[in-house]
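name: query_chain
kind: protein
chains: 1
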Amino acid sequence: MITIKSEREIELMRHAGMLVSKMHQFIKPYIKPGISTLELDRLCEEFIRSNDAIPTEKGYEGYPASICASINDVVVHGIPHEKDVLKSGDIITIDVVIGYKGYQGDAAWTYAVGEVDDNKKYLMEHTEKALYEGISMVKPGNRIGDISAAVQKYAEKHNLGVVRELCGHGIGKEMHEDPEVPNFGIENTGPKLKPGMVICIEPMLTFGKRDIYLLEDEWTVVTQDGSDAAHYEHTVLVTENGYEILTPRLD
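structure:
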């Protein structure tokens, strides 16, 4: 069931979303060669809890960490580990969900570690732009399929693989709510957007083929051909006239 958030709920989600934005701003200077993803996780959890909030991902269906830290060919759900040490030329996606007074904010951004090659720069640039192509379709009366089609069209125009097994989602009291928000689809299909809906739009694109598989830890999703992946996500409110990004970039 798709829920319409009240003004009170939206205010709480604005606060949760801003904490997500501030956490990304906080962690960015630490993303450099030599740091482990486990240390990044520790720093993020400390930041979240110091702001009277909760790392919603920790313990979710048994997930052991406060963030997902996905390096290079890991598409999503990379589990932080002391042995995963960043090196120059890597890209890493930090995906976090923060709960504040029972409501959630969610955003993922991909970061360059030191100097990265042109292919990785291209992948990052156009995955982020695909996100904003999708967001640009958010307004009352449009449909989820309009968002999905915009992401797919932009990604495929730039020869990037569109992961189909994973998608965006509604958000509110729960991390994942209705509706699903795929990154591929047909215009003018799917649920109609209404003021007060809050959704997460999150293109997950690859520099090679779109095929993926799940590792034995039952969390980590990687590209089948070993190509790099990028992932950008915002929490977005449908307003009376368009949209509001509840997880704005502060850099």
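note: The two ends are 35 Å apart (CA to CA).
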